[in-house]
Amino acid sequence: MHDPLTAAEYKAIANTIELPTNAFIDGSFRPANSGKTFTTANPATGKTLAEVASCDASDVDFAVAKAKAAFDDGRWHLLSPGERKAVLLKFAKLLEENRHELAVMESLDSGKPIRECQTVDVPDTIHTIRWHAELIDKLYDNTAPVGSRALTMIVREPIGVVGAVLPWNFPLLMLAWKIGPALAAGCSVVVKPAQETTLTALRVAELAHEAGIPAGVLNVVTGGGKEVGEPIGMHMDVDMVTFTGSTPTGRRFLRYAADSNLKRLVLECGGKNPAVVLEDAEDLDLVAEQVVTGAFWNMGENCSATSRLIVHSSIKDELLQRIGAYMREWKTGDPLDPENRIGALVSKAHFEKVKFYLDDVKKEKLALVLGGETHKGIYVEPTVVDGVTRSSRLFQEEIFGPILSVTTFNSLAEAVALANDTPYGLTASVYTGSLRKAIKLSREIRAGVVTVNCFGEGDATTPFGGYKESGFGGRDKSIFAHDQYTELKTIWIDVSERSVDETVR
What is the DSSP string of 433-457? Predict the structure, then answer.
C-alpha cells in the first residue's frame, strides 16, 4: 500500500480530482438548508478549492433525526456481527482502492506533505477501519458468578447516536479513530469535520455508503463550530460526543453536555509533550532522529508532538549538533512534492499564531539554534530554541507548529519535575540505556502514552489519550475505544426453585 507516486503524478490527480461540496446526510449529498456556503482553500497556494455547504442547527437537526431513525429501526446495529464486519471490510477495501485520490485531497485541503498522507495517514486510516471491523465478532459478553439461583448476563449495547467532532491536523486519521469503533459497535454517527479540512470526510462517507453502510448511519455535516459543533453538543438526541481538538473547545463540550442531556463525552485535547534524554542514552544519532521526527512531523501540528526537549546538560551540545544534521533532511516546500517533509501550515491565521511564538524568542532573549525563518506567509522552517525555562510560554503553551524548545537538567528528579510541569499530560518520550530508569520515568511522568527510546503513539491495538487538561472520558484506538461507544447492561434472571414453582402453579 505504501506506493508513493511522483510529484507530476500527484499534480495530475490534483488537476482532475472531483471535490465534494455538500453535506452527506441520510445516504446522499445535500446542500445546506440555508443555501449558504463557505470557501475552503489550499493553504499552500491560497487558491480556492471549493465552495462547501455551510450548515447550521437545522441541518444538524435533520442529520440527527436521520441518524436516530436509522438506529431505532436497527438497520445497522441489529445486523449480525459478521454482517457488519463484512460491510466494514468492504469499506476498507474501497478506501484502499481510492488511496491516491484521498492522499491528494488531504494534502490540498490541509497543506500536509503528500508523502505523509500517502505513507502514513491513508494507510493508518484503512488499517484502523479494518482492525475495528475484525474486532466485531471477537468480543464476548460475560456472565457473573452469582450462584445457582440466578443467571446474570453482562452485555454491551451500542450507545446510540454519536457526534464526532474532528480537528484539522489529521482529518482522515481522526475520522477513522472515531467512526471505526463507533460503527463497529453498531452506533449511528454524525460527523463534524473541521471547517478548514472538510473534503476527505465527505468522500469517506460516500465510500462508506457505497460499501453498504445504510443511509442515516454515517452522516457528515459541514460548517463552523458555532453553527454545527455547538448544536451537536447541545442536541438532546445525541447520546455521546467524541471530540479531538483544543482544550478550550473541550471545556465547551463539557458545558454543552451539562446543559443538555448529560451525554457521554470523550475528550482528547492538547499536549505539551516532553522528550527526556538522560546522560546514559546509548545512541545519540537515534535520539536525534526521533526527536526531530517527534517535533517536526506534520509541521508540529500534532497534539502528541514532542515539542519540549529536556536533556541532561552534559550531552546537550552534542545532541543539538546531531539534531542539526538530521534537520537537513527536512525540506520545506510544495506539499505535493514528495521530496518535501514540511508543508504549509493549515491557514494564514494559524501561521500568525505560530509566528507570534517565534517573536517570543527575541523578546525573551533565547538562543535561536536552528531555523526560525518563515516563507510566503504560510511556511515555517523547523526551529530549535535553546535556553528555554519553565516560566517561558514556549515551555508551557501548545504552539502547534515546528518549534522545539530546549531545557537542561542535572538530576533525575529535576527531569521528572520539568516533564510534569505543564497543564497537559498527553504523551512523553524517554531516552536512556538503563531499563530501571526507563521504567521509573515512565511511571513518574504523568502522561497517557510514554514511549521509550523512540517517538510514537503505539498502533491500533494501544489506547491513546491523556491526563490532566489533555482530556478524559475514554481513549481513541484499541478495544477500549470500542467499549466507550457501548452501554454496559446487566440482565439478572431468577432461576431459583421458588420462581420455577410459582410458574408451574
Answer: S-HHHHHHHHHHS--SEEEESS---
